[in-house]
Amino acid sequence: MIRVLVVDDEAMIRTGFQHILDAAHDIEVAAAVPGGQALQTAQDIRPDVVLLDIRMPDVDGLTVLAGLRRLPHPPVVAMLTTFDMDEYVATALRSGAAGFLLKDTDPEELPFLVRTLADGGTVLSSKVTRTVVDGYLSAGPRESAAHSLARLTDRERAVLVLIAEGLSNADIGTRMHLSTGTVKDHVSAILGKLEVDGRVQAALLAERAGLLKEPRGEEGG
Q1: What does pTM read for this prediction?
Q2: 3-state secondary structure string, 150-163?
Q3: Which pLDDT tens digit goes with each residue over 76-112?
Q4: Up-side HSE of residue 81: CA atoms within 13 Å toward CB?
Q5: What does the alpha-carbon distance between residue 104 and residue 184 come to, in Å, rounded to a whole number?
Q6: Contact 59, 35 (CB under 8 A)
Q7: By three-state DSSP, how is residue 119 classified?
């Protein structure tokens, strides 16, 4: 059972997300709270996934994200917004958010997205993906990104391509005929070598370096 914490200052949003997710057989909304209660609630219930509003009147969503990342067992966090172009997107992703969703995401897609997050995948709403990628592509020189990727082995580069395609650890394992544990080890090594805090940053660094335009080689080695 995937335990979810929904954090939003609008009661209607909290209720709507809880209703949608609780209908899934493998997802439980353990709590749905406003921003001021987020950190204490997360400490109490230790959720697997947090859906966190990025703009709240009582506490900044980025501040909550930073607090969640400092917990002994930090949950996976996806940011929520009503805007398809938000200046906080890049900051949230650099701070360790695993995804970015619009609040009007199709209800039928929401359980799948939560499962993807819980399994180590990344999720970006199609409406914000281009904005996010464009922001990262202009954030630094292409040569610098390519230099960072040069630290990776061929196997790690293959894993990184699949991360950039949004695949979860389990899906990457299936594609590359690896155990999920081995994939997790590769992901950890990739994040360490690239000096980034999360899969989204690694994926966008790969995009900036042009890795996703390279022909896919053999996935062994």
Answers
A1: 0.69
A2: CCCCHHHHHHHHHH
A3: 999 998 765 556 776 787 788 888 888 888 888 899 9
A4: 20
A5: 31
A6: yes
A7: coil
